[in-house]
Amino acid sequence: MIRYDDSEPFIRPHGIKFRDGQDPNIRLPKVAVGVFSSHLYKDIIEKFSTKEVGYISGANLERSIYIINYKGVHLTLFMAGVSGPWICADMEELHAKGVEKFIIFGNCGVLDSSIKDCSIIIPTLAYREEGTSYHYVEESDTIEMNTKYVDEFIEILNKYDFDYIKAPTWTTDAFYRETKNKIKKYQELGVKTVEMEGASIAAVCKYLNIDYFTFYYAGDNLDSVEWDERSLSGLSNIDKKKEVTILALELAIKLSTKY
Questions:
Q1: pLDDT tens per residue, range 86-113
Q2: How many CA atoms lie within 13 A of 60 on its CB side?
Q3: Angle at CA 193, nearest 5°, toward 90 and 149?
Q4: 195 phi and psi, to 5 degrees?
Q5: How many of the other CB atoms lie within 10 Å of CB of 96?
Q6: Residue 128: beta bridge partners?
Q7: 231 falls in which pLDDT band (50, 70, 90)?
Q8: Domains within the chain, CATH numbers bracketed
Q9: The pLDDT of residue 179 is above 90
Q10: Please, which residues have CB within 8 angstroms of residue 70's CB and are 6 or more apart in sequence?
């Protein structure tokens, strides 16, 4: 059983790491965009003016951190780690180096087949079936999500003519244990999506007292007799997914310039 403990941490984040010639004293732009898809991450780097300023590393992988110039506004760009522990470690390290607002987006499974492929879901509440969030905030069945910036994001969605819904999500860290009984249970609770990071993102930002906005684009469908992969594969429907990237960047510059 996980028991929440509000005492001081023994290990603290020290920020990102640096290669030869990179400035270890750099302060990152206050608004960061995190993208789970490696294809969309590379597409942003190729399309816009970017500068590699450091990296995050683990036991078996390094991910570069960039400063991107989007419409004259400097933003932090990172490829988000998949799963609650990984994304929370990313956010702790980036916050230690100056990031104060996170916009994080990626694919999710849907529990309602009427949700069109690649349409946008704004999570409003997360059912906590992962472990990481319980280390950051006291235990509860759910945690509120996206208490800020929903109206600003909807303005952008309308501008770019994207379908969207607002709905609760189910955060789990065991995707091969998304059982038929659990799917039915969460459907009855009005949950529309399943993913691996939502509750964790909300919890770490609440703990750190920083702002965030996270959203999903619909991928595989669990509201069917057999699992329907749809566009879960990274390159499936890639042109539409690239359009989703612009939504995150547009929100990032809005938060950078107005708040």
A1: 999 999 999 999 999 999 999 999 999 9
A2: 2
A3: 60
A4: -160, -175
A5: 15
A6: 171
A7: confident
A8: 31-258 (3.40.50.1580)
A9: yes
A10: 48, 249, 252, 253
